[in-house]
Amino acid sequence: MLYFAARRFLSALLVMFAISVLVFLIFFATPGVDPAARIAGRNADPATLAQVRHAFGLDRPMPVRYLLMMKHLLVDRDLESFVNRGARVIPQIVQAAPVTLSLVVGAAILWMAVGILMGTAAATMRGTAVDPLIMLVGVVGVSLPAYWLGEVVNLITQKQLHGTVFSWVPPPGYVGLSQNPGEWALHLLFPWLTLSVLYAGIYARLLRGEVVTALNEDYVRTARAKGLSERRILVRHALRCSLIPIVSLFGLDFGALVGGAALLTEVVFGLPGIGKLTFDALQNLDLPVIMGTVLYAAFFVVLANALVDILYARLDPRARHA
Amino acid sequence: MTAQNIVAADTDARPRGDVLLRASDLAKHYPLRAESLTKRRRVLRAVDGVSLDVRGGETLGIVGESGCGKSTLGRCLVRLTDITSGRVEFDGQDITTLSARRLRRIRPGMQLVFQDPQASLNPRRRAGDIVAEPLLIHRYGDAAAVRRRVAELFDVVGLASAHLDRYPHEFSGGQRQRIGIARALATSPKLIVADEPVSALDVSIQAQVLNLFADLQEEFGLTYVFIAHDLGVVRHVSDRIAVMYLGEIVELAATEALYSAPAHPYTQALMSAVPEIDDGPATVKGAGAHRRERIVLTGEVPNPVAKPTGCTFHTRCPYARERCAVEHPRLTETASGRRAACHYPLDGQR
Amino acid sequence: MPDQPLLDVTDLRVSFRTRRGRVTAVDGLSFSVAPGEVLGVVGESGSGKSVSMLAVLRLLTNPNVTVSGEVLFRGRDLLSLPDKQMRAIRGREIAMVFQDPMTALTPVYTVGWQIAEQIRAHEPVSRKEAHARAVELLSDVGIPDAASRVNAYPHEFSGGMRQRAVIAMALACSPALLIADEPTTALDVTIQAQILDLMRELNARGSAVVLITHDMGVVSEIADRVLVMYGGRVAEEGPRQAVFHVPRHPYTWGLLDSVPRVGGTRLRRLPTIAGVPVSPDSLPEGCAFAPRCRLRHERCDERPELSAAPGTPAHRDACRLPADDRTSLRLTARAAATGAAAAEHAGRASKAERADKADVEREAAP
């Protein structure tokens, strides 16, 4: 186990190092991104530029610049944005993370619940009209892009019907959980729904396939021969085994979303999360922030991977000794 | 029942030629993945020090329980897999370390027939093309010659020419195995290694395919290495039989000798475990079924990764003594002229 | 009444709706099992032997299946029983063991948990009690160190051990009837011998056993009575000795003759049954075996009824051959089988004959 954990940790470090180098190189290989020009502001004279370059160490060789940036980011934790002078990267991320986490955790609970219900229901009602109907709903969910759905939801709840049905919907934005839990939930309700529609559709389809396969397995026949109730066979045997691949997929999706992949939903609903932060930084070509968010995202994806492996071993005894 | 259909018990069934295939101290080891940095990599000894000769025109049966290495041995014998150590000679030529190119020139002479005809036939190709493939690979001749040869092969294995254009899934299990046999015969091999060729078939179909094997041997003077777990099937087809246990041959004997008086305790236990059909008094059959005393082995086959010390069978052997746990017996001639890997071989004391 | 059967199946029919129309897998099957007896059901693939037993326990869940007939178990018709009562019978009064022990257990629960689940489904006992009984059962079926092995997962058991565990589970509620579907087919011969011993022991404790198998040797070793099935119908049934010593149906002859034996005379060529087993989607009107039978005649177009052998009412077969003198007919059939095979070997069968055979095989191919 220790050997396993150590190997895992080392590979995670390696991945993060590689990503950071890649981001760094891509950034400086992109034309027209001279950070000095951005820091010095518009129409700065060459002398100022040179001064800025020197002050930020931008005239040093690339490896040194990389190490300097990493030192500021990870050791001194005082790396500053190139665009908004004085704005430090780490506090920005620390501030944005809870927003994204709130959004993704809520949506994940929703989509897992709905996905499992839909998938299981469709699988058990195979051969009836309910099955294709549920699956159709799932496909519709999958094919609605989040930004479009979000805009439509906003249009309806903020404009068209805001005066009547949806008068209780607060304007886009975010309220911290510790400040006011009720408002927090209210602000996040539609973002949750929007984000979970896509994933619920995907997970329902996947789970249906898994449960249908499981229901044809020999062990389900054994369970029937034991005289168990259909409900118990479905939940304790078929569904339990079907969840194994679903859960590992969930870990990866969850990690990616927390890392910033919920970007579109955040932007549409004006949530100041990691995705939004990355989005803005990319628009301004603000290397320090990009570097910070990308490393943060990589960290979560790697962490999610490790958690999935551990969870997998918990769920599937066959994986424990392999 | 005609008299010539009975295989005489006391003679060698077929005149034997020279040694066609010889394996000397053959081994195939698979290294397993390390469990941790500190532990040593473990090794699965699938085949461990096997020596045997196969003479031209004879059938050597290889029998044993699952995991005994009989299939791996079969693949080693035709160099379908690389060999860890030891030596394989085919037709007087050492093929142990032949390069892929040189091996290709030998290939037509030795062919393999697999257990699962469904899995070993490409589902997207027509039966005729499947049989033609080895002919094309080994440049048998022009298109017309290949067509003629395929039609001939179909006739030989009892398939109709109407079957040439069908796909594997349109055939029954027995017919698919016939296609596999036709493919193996295409290049007129001297040796066919058949790995459980009838175990997936219903008994009535199994008998048909076994008869086909017998006919082909007689007609083309084929040499077979016949791998199976079914002791009845092996007895039916083989002139001599090698019994394997945990990657080693524990006994090698002529078929009748082996079945009437096994020298190795494992062989004895294996034979006694086969459920026999009781045909009753010798009215119809000609020979009455003789009941034997059953020896039910305790426990299961040990993990081949962690083989027992000494004699690998001593953990389950009803006759094991102290020496068996320490000293590894070699396959040698016993006092009664049999070849068994046992310190205390049985001497017809059944 | 002491002779009342435990299980009495009358005119069981199972059919599947497929794209190519209705397919009859079991075609009017009737048989019974007496308390404490071992009934061996033999047949090749497609004979309907497994499907009929699944139908008895109502384990055919496919919505395209239709089952009809009467299955009386201790006087109750299982086919018309409400689901809940049926569940109370499954696993408690009738247990079933399947062919492949590798896949028969749910991979994510320990063996002990699964045995305890079975006990608790039928008896109001505590978790702890059920667990203790699981240990006892495992040790009963010969698993060494049961107290610790009870907490092992199925994948930690070998095939033979798993089959023991499955049998332990089946025995949990001391069923009156155990249906075992090819319980040893996936196992090595030395392990098979152990499992057969276990079944015998179980039978000695009073359970009746229906053993489904394709292995005539297994039946010969363990069965009291034998049911030979072909094409979803009974070809022959009777006490073991009668069926094995004086078999009456040409199909039974073929089955017995085509098995290569470990003892006795060694034949260069085996007598075979021509063609391939009949497939459920092409069952003939008359005798199902007629297309492969070497002694078929015009009357075989008419479906034969089961009729008793002269002098032995318990030994019945469905064949239109004259009821007496089957033994000499058998020799004729075998000579024909050997002769036809030899002819094929010598000069290769005539074109017409081979085309005929190909037709039979093609029809039967899936």
Description:
The complex is a heterotrimer of chains A (322), B (350) and C (366). In chain A, 76% of the residues lie in helices and 0% in strands. The radius of gyration of chain A is 24 Å and the shape is globular. In chain A, α1 packs antiparallel against α13 (287-315) and α9 (218-225) runs antiparallel to α10 (230-261). Chain A contains 13 helices and no strands. Chain A folds into two domains: 2-89, no CATH class; 96-319, Orthogonal Bundle (MetI-like fold). Chain A has 322 residues and is mostly helical. In chain B, β8, α7 and β9 form a beta-alpha-beta unit. Chain B has eleven helices and 13 strands. With 350 residues, chain B is of the alpha/beta class. The two termini of chain B are 30 Å apart. Chain B has a single domain, classed as Rossmann fold (3-Layer(aba) Sandwich), CATH 3.40.50. In chain B, α4 (127-137) crosses α5 (143-156), α5 (143-156) packs across α6 and α6 packs parallel to α7 (203-220). In chain B, the strands form two sheets. An eight-stranded mixed sheet of chain B has the order 7-8-9-4-10-11-13-12, with helices on both faces. Chain C has a domain at 108-163. Chain C has an eight-stranded mixed sheet, with helices on both faces. A four-stranded antiparallel sheet of chain C has the order 2-1-4-5. The radius of gyration of chain C is 22 Å and the shape is globular. Chain C starts with 6 loop residues before the first strand and ends with a helix. The model of chain C is unreliable at 347-366 (pLDDT under 50). The interface between B and C is large, with 71 and 67 residues. β1 (6-7) of chain B pairs antiparallel with β11 (266-267) of chain C, so a sheet runs across the interface. Chain A: Residues 97-312 form the ABC transmembrane type-1 domain. Chain A: Belongs to the binding-protein-dependent transport system permease family. Chain A: This is ABC transporter permease. Chain A: InterPro entries: BPD_transp_1_N, MetI-like, MetI-like_sf. Chain A: Pfam families: BPD_transp_1 (PF00528), BPD_transp_1_N (PF19300).
